[in-house]
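hi! just following up on the protien thing from before. the input was this:
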Amino acid sequence: MERKKIDEIHFSIHSVLVTDELKHKFYEWVTGDKFYSPIDWLSSPISKTEFPEDISWQDVVDYSEGISFTNRTFSESEDDMLRLLRMETAEHLFDKFLHEGLDNDTITLIEDAWNQKFNSFEPVDYQNFDYTLKGFQENLMARILLFMNNRKKEWHFSAQKEMVFLPTMLVWEKLQLELPVSCTRCNIKNANDL
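and the predicted 3d structure came back as:
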């Protein structure tokens, strides 16, 4: 896969890539203070306009730390809007920090971690995968078995995990019935339990 640079990388503040150290750098970047005191708008790299009227810096910190939202009004819909605004504000500020507030060493660490975690797998080629079973007929009662796309993906995924397939799956295909992926997984699990 092609290596992604920081300009192409976006992730949530609740991502597995976010460490406590990165959160603290984010807080320091916004406030300009190691104690995360109220924002000094003259020295902060963000502007006051990036905060909606009813959202405070403490709301952003609470969201970042996973502290649940407390209702502020008697209207459930207004609280839902505030909850959503709190999340959007925190995620926007964190994304801005990722692209404007990091030093080169941290950028390299984040790029390496992100590419290792989310960009290190090769896409699966379902067209050239061998769907035949050794020992079973490829042609059941003179009818070629055709797999639907969701079944091809399930078949390939399960084959990668060295799972066993039941011949009943072939009968379903012969009858040209759509066998849901959940049934495929059930058949595979049952075969493995035998």
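Residues 139-193 form one domain.
The first helix runs from residue 20 to 31.
cheers
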